[in-house]
């Protein structure tokens, strides 16, 4: 089988693709399943004015937090900002535009974009700031707000396993946003923990087929950060 989709490292996988002002999707939920190696390569590229679509913006110094530190992000389209002080500081200072979106709506916007659906209606946000300036339509006596599907120039994705054709398997919480983002990028780049030969993955276990994936980077043994560590004192056993 051809290794045409395999790149030596994240920098090589992004080579020739990044431009100022482009839109990126970045998978993951909190710090789980984030494409950290690819994010670091975006930072090293110096690309600026980015619009980034992600559930959250990482934390200070980790994940998308490094792109906030370098002020490479101009706009965040996200649903949660609670773990990142720099995110809040830049927004309040007027240095960062934020499109704050209900989490389920954001997920469906990305899924719709990947499925070629330009817009859909939802009850979420009707009568709130979320619906201001958007079309409202009544179905069966209930008001719904129209939301646009989302796509990106590049989707950065983290997968647990892939074969060399780009068929992807995700694990647990990392399955939250990564699969739909893999379908919604004009170019999808995946960093994968376990890279195997075609045919080694049970077809029933494939979540995203390789037709959606253009480039793959093998990143074995990635660091897996913990956002909030809660412990209790060790109990002495008599």
Folded structure, characterized:
- By secondary structure, the chain is an alpha/beta fold.
- It is 20% helix and 27% strand.
- It has six helices and twelve strands.
- It has helices at residues 10-14, 36-45, 65-69, 85-92, 103-115, 178-184; strands at 6-7, 23-26, 50-53, 73-78, 97-100, 119-122, 136-139, 142-148, 152-163, 168-169, 185-196, 215-218.
- Strands 1, 2, 3, 4, 5, 9, 10, 11 and 12 form a nine-stranded mixed β-sheet that branches. A three-stranded antiparallel β-sheet has the order 6-8-7.
- Strand 2 (23-26), helix 2 and strand 3 form a beta-alpha-beta unit.
- Helix 5 runs parallel beside helix 6 (178-184).
- The termini are far apart.
- The mean pLDDT is 93.
Rg, Cα atoms, Å: 19 Å
Q: Could you list the spans in which at least 5 consecutive residues all have pLDDT below 50?
A: none
Structural class assignment: alpha/beta
If you average the pLDDT, what whole number results?
A: 93
Q: Total number of helical segments? A: 6
Strand content: 25-35%
Number of beta-strand segments: 12
Q: What share of residues is helical?
A: 10-25%
Give helix and strand order, one letter per element, not per position. Answer: EHEHEHEHEHEEEEEHEE
* N-to-C span: 61 Å
Shape: globular
Largest sheet: 9 strands, mixed
Break the fold down into its secondary structure elements and pairings.
Blueprint: E1 6-7, H1 10-14, E2 23-26, H2 36-45, E3 50-53, H3 65-69, E4 73-78, H4 85-92, E5 97-100, H5 103-115, E6 119-122, E7 136-139, E8 142-148, E9 152-163, E10 168-169, H6 178-184, E11 185-196, E12 215-218
Parallel strand pairs: 1-12, 2-3, 2-9, 3-4, 4-5, 9-11, 11-12
Antiparallel strand pairs: 6-8, 7-8, 9-10
Helix pairs in contact: 5-6
